[in-house]
Amino acid sequence: MLDGTEVQFKSVTLKKYVSADDGGGGVVTVDRDNPLAWETFRLWRVSESAFQFRTSSGQFLTCDQDGGSITATARSPSSTETFYLERSNDNRVHIKLKSGTYLQASNSNQLTADYPGKPGWDENGATFELIIVSNDLHGDYQIANGYGHDKAAEVLKKHRNSFITVEDFDFLYRHGMNTVRIPVGWWIAYDPEPPPPFVGGTLEALDNAFSWAQTFGIKCIIDLHAAPESQNGMEHSASRDGTTGWPNSPDSISQTLNVIDFLASRYSNHPSLLGIELLNEPSAASVPLDTLVSYYKQGYKIVRKHSSTAYVIFCQRIGSADPMELYQANLGTENTVVDLHYYNLFDSYFSNMTSLENIQYIYKARQTQVQALNSANGPLVFIGEWVNEWDVTEGSLYDYQEFGRAQLDVYNAASFGWTYWTLKNDRVHWDFEWNVRNNYLQLQLGRSSAMCLPNFLHVLGCLCVCWVLL
Question: Average pLDDT for residues 407-418, to the nearest whole number?
Answer without folding.
Answer: 96
